[in-house]
Amino acid sequence: MVLKNKKWDHNYFLKMREEVLNSWETGKEVNFEEAVSYLKSLPKEKYADYVLKKADEEKRTLLQPRAGVPILREHILLLQYLQKEGGADILPTTIDSYTRQNRYREAQIGIEESLREGKSLLNGFPAVNYGVKACREIIESVDVPVEIRHGTPDARLLAEITLAAGFTSFEGGGITYNIPYAKDVSLENSILYWQYVDYLVGLYAENGVIINRESFGPLTGTLVPPSISISIGIIEALFAAEQGVKSFSVGYGQCGNVIQDAAAINVLDRLTKEYLASFGYYDVHITTVLHHFMGGFPEDEARAYAVISLGTIPAVLSKATKIIVKTPQEAVGIPSKEANAAALRNTRQVLQMLDCQDFIDKNKVQEEEYIIEREVRSILNTVYSVGEGDFVLGTVRAFASGLLDVPFAPSRFTLGRVMPVRDNEGAVRFFDFGNLPFDEEIKSFHRKKLEERAKYEKREISFQMVLDDIYAISKGRLVGRPR
Ligand SMILES: CCC[C@H]1O[C@@H](n2cnc3c(N)ncnc32)[C@H](O)[C@@H]1O
């Protein structure tokens, strides 16, 4: 079948499904009709889409941590703790790195060694190895929806098993779980694998089971310009809608300048809905997700809490539907359950002290929205035209020529020519536009912003500013000032 942004032929899916379900022994546990009836037996409060819709209507922001450990009993206790002590509105199951690379044999060894040693020797929960029945124990041991969070270019079997098990939200996409996560996976392959996932979610939807899909907005998490993250999120929403997905969350990673971050989420929400409608998808429920800062964190827990609390502010300003909460142990590794729960309580406190205040200069937010929107439209309209009206074709061609590009990505399928840097107020601007399709008005806006910083710091605009910015927050400030 030629790769394009068109809903799959059902027989094509069924044929590929046989291969997918045979790729590991637990695949044979998956029975679609049985899964539909199991999912329909779950209360509505276990559906991420229901909880997201309710929060969206009530203008509330939901909180969700990341969490995953390899021993099933431990993982259940961890999620129950985060629900009870952290107040998580949606729980995660973060998948381990072996499973993310389809290396289920090593994941199996990791489970056995963890059981033998009595400690976590994998960095997440290996859901494929456990299979449908065991994963259902997780769903049945908590009271809120559980989402699969991972970083898997080929997540077809992971989706089959976890969706059948009752996870009602699934993160990732053919661009966002490839470019920042893999070196050698072609976009043609990862987009095809994720069309499978979206088609499966669409099949559940046709049978009355609404699964929420979420794009991984932060990408490489290092100074990613908002317009790049937003454009890619909208493209993945278009891919998912074409396959029949009815509930989609677009994500964005906090960059640090509060005005820019709030503006970014406003544009993300508005343009995702506009582009879906303009391509005829009127029945997809869109929600927004803010990720607390995804770059290098301070080791000191008090300073780490400052980064987390600052990151909560743009969620209040933009009324983001959900925050993916970071923890004060971000700089040291996988957090303890106590630190994870404490970060949830910290975030809730900031939300509830700010949500009654109207304190931001709306003109400054709108100025920022204007430039971000101009950039997003330039990128998306270019992708559409190089794809001759097809966003899948356009995406592959745009990445090959740098019309779409992600800074600091490991993938050899992105040019990596684009280079970001902060301006004098810490907003992320372009040091090098690479081949991004921006007009002179956009380019001179960024140059002027960088000249302001150069003047203030009494130094030339240089790559040294980029390096200083990469380490700035872990060293205690937003902008990487010269020593
Ligand atoms: C997008 C992935 C990076 C973030 O994902 C966190 N992360 C990864 N694996 C786990 C895990 N098993 N439990 C709790 N957090 C986890 C990292 O700390 C980082 O913040």
From TrEMBL:
Isomerase as a keyword of this entry, yes or no, is yes
Reported cofactor(s): adenosylcob(III)alamin
Keyword annotations: Cobalamin, Cobalt, Isomerase
Q: Write down the superkingdom of origin.
A: Bacteria
Query: Which GO annotations describe the biological process of this protein?
Result: anaerobic L-glutamate catabolic process; L-glutamate catabolic process via L-citramalate
Q: What reaction gets catalysed by this protein? A: (2S,3S)-3-methyl-L-aspartate = L-glutamate
List the SUPFAM superfamilies.
Cobalamin (vitamin B12)-dependent enzymes (SSF51703)
Quaternary state and interactors: Heterotetramer composed of 2 epsilon subunits (GlmE) and 2 sigma subunits (GlmS). GlmE exists as a homodimer and GlmS as a monomer.
Q: Which HAMAP family match?
A: Me_Asp_mutase_E
Name of the featured protein: Glutamate mutase epsilon subunit
